[in-house]
TrEMBL record:
<dbReference type="InterPro" id="IPR004269">
    <property type="entry name" value="Folate_rcpt"/>
</dbReference>
<keyword id="KW-0675">Receptor</keyword>
<keyword id="KW-0732">Signal</keyword>
<keyword id="KW-1015">Disulfide bond</keyword>
<feature type="domain" description="Folate receptor-like">
    <location>
        <begin position="7"/>
        <end position="165"/>
    </location>
</feature>
<dbReference type="Pfam" id="PF03024">
    <property type="entry name" value="Folate_rec"/>
</dbReference>
<protein>
    <submittedName>
        <fullName>Folate receptor gamma</fullName>
    </submittedName>
</protein>
<comment type="similarity">
    <text>Belongs to the folate receptor family.</text>
</comment>
<dbReference type="InterPro" id="IPR018143">
    <property type="entry name" value="Folate_rcpt-like"/>
</dbReference>
<dbReference type="GO" id="GO:0009897">
    <property type="term" value="C:external side of plasma membrane"/>
</dbReference>
<dbReference type="GO" id="GO:0038023">
    <property type="term" value="F:signaling receptor activity"/>
</dbReference>
Amino acid sequence: QESLLNICMDAKHHKTEPGPEGQLYGQCVLWKDNACCTANTSMEAHLDQSYLYNFNWDHCGAMPDKCKRHFIQDTCLYECSPNLGPWIDETDSSWRKERIQNVPLCREDCEQWWEDCQDAVTCKVNWHRGWNWTSGTNQCPRGAMCQKFKFVFPTPAQLCEQIWS
């Protein structure tokens, strides 16, 4: 049986096997000794408008840096970690065959994420689907109102459990 650790998921930007990647950028540097991402992917993970997914963090105005760093860390974990095997699930999406689901998160990390993002603004609870992509990047769906995170996600648990479905 293949180990659930030290593997890369079958997704859009992942390497087929984890290995050293000496030039990882910024917050992704934690995985430089054994990564599923390339240096280029790690750099793109830090951009406001990245080619990785054409996802715009600033869809309701500029996201504060202290909030954005949590999304960058989340992207680095998703793209670079070779230790997500226990949470890899098959998916039938056009751009990936696998995704991760129900990855445990430390309560303190979730609370800090919520704390740092409570005044950031969004128009959706589930960022995984339902966006208007007609412009090529995610925009709020018609009729969706931009509100502070603390109203969209009243508790840290709601943020961490709902934002990526």
